[in-house]
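TA notes, week 10

Several of you asked for a full example with nothing omitted. So below is the full record: structure tokens for the whole chain, then the designed sequence directly under it. When grading your own attempts, check the secondary structure regions first.
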């Protein structure tokens, strides 16, 4: 049966990844790369998004789209997520001390981490230790992972908001959920999913108009062309991210003071 063989292979791959993830932190196999978030009005960089990279001991590069869901299932996402939190805050502090005092750091957080009752405490401890303002930390949570029935997750979101971090709703527009949660949860920013780019379609413009109505800021992801950038800028979408500006790079190659100009 080809189907059984296929699923057995997939199962083995998952087990193999779980085993390799086990020592990945101790072996220094993870790193973070950073992608700028650009203010479309003037091309300046306002923040960067930390994205996780993994090269295994065997030298294989495995993407977060593959290993994050596996780490969520195995529970390993908690330790990995804490490592990311620590590293990204530390990098934010380095840039802050280098004079980029308003440069914020966006960190992707799994819904499994939101269920961890220690999460907001852990973040606030890191910020205290680094003496870094909470407003410089942006927490990205995917729309699909928002479970409004989960009391612990909702409590964590409110704790984070009270701490002063900004909350970003990632992959916005890809979920099927009813939008009423937007008025109950303390989200500040919508990130339009890159599947809606290039933006010459009604979905992106509808989301931008809705963001304006709701008084939420909008970040468009996946901007790859100048045409797309100009379209979004004309619609008064405030921020954008994408290969047009810069691919994610290691901190050593990132210039927080760079300005992008296409006019
Ligand atoms: P995401 O948060 O939606 O991140 C955006 C993804 O789009 C990134 O892929 C980024 O490299 C890619 N991207 C950026 N600009 C462009 C563009 O112009 N065109 C295209 N086609 N793609 C672009 P990446 O780094 O492979 O990450 C994939 C996903 O893995 C992320 O999607 C996020 O959901 C997850 N992820 C990454 N790092 C972390 C992490 O530290 N923690 C957690 N929980 N999830 C993470
Ligand atoms: Ca993200
Ligand atoms: Ca996204
Ligand atoms: Ca995504």
């Amino acid at each position: 049966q080809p189907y059984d063989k296929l699923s057995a292979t997939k199962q083995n791959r998952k087990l193999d990844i779980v085993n390799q993830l086990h020592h990945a932190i101790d072996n220094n196999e993870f790193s973070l790369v950073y992608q700028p978030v650009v203010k479309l009005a003037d091309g300046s960089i306002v923040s960067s998004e930390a994205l996780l990279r993994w090269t295994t001991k065997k030298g294989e590069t495995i993407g977060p789209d593959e290993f994050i869901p596996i780490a969520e299932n195995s529970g390993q996402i908690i330790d990995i997520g804490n490592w990311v939190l620590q590293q990204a805050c530390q990098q934010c502090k380095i840039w802050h001390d280098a004079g980029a005092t308003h440069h914020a750091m966006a960190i992707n957080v799994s819904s499994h981490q939101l269920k961890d009752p220690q999460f907001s405490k852990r973040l606030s401890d890191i910020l205290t230790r680094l003496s870094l303002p909470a407003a410089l930390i942006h927490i990205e949570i995917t729309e699909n992972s928002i479970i409004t029935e989960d009391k612990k997750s909702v409590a964590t979101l409110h704790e984070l908001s009270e701490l002063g971090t900004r909350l970003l709703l990632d992959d916005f527009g890809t979920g099927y959920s009813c939008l009423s949660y937007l008025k109950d949860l303390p989200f500040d920013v919508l990130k339009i999913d890159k599947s809606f780019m290039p933006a010459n379609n009604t979905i992106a413009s509808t989301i931008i108009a809705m963001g304006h109505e709701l008084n939420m800021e909008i970040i468009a992801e996946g901007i790859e062309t100048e045409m797309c950038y100009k379209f979004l800028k004309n619609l008064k979408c405030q921020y954008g991210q994408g290969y047009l500006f810069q691919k994610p790079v290691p901190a050593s190659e990132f210039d927080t003071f760079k300005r992008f100009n296409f006019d």
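Residues 49, 108, 140, 170 surround calcium ion (ligand 2) (CB under 6 Å). Use that as a sanity check on your answer.
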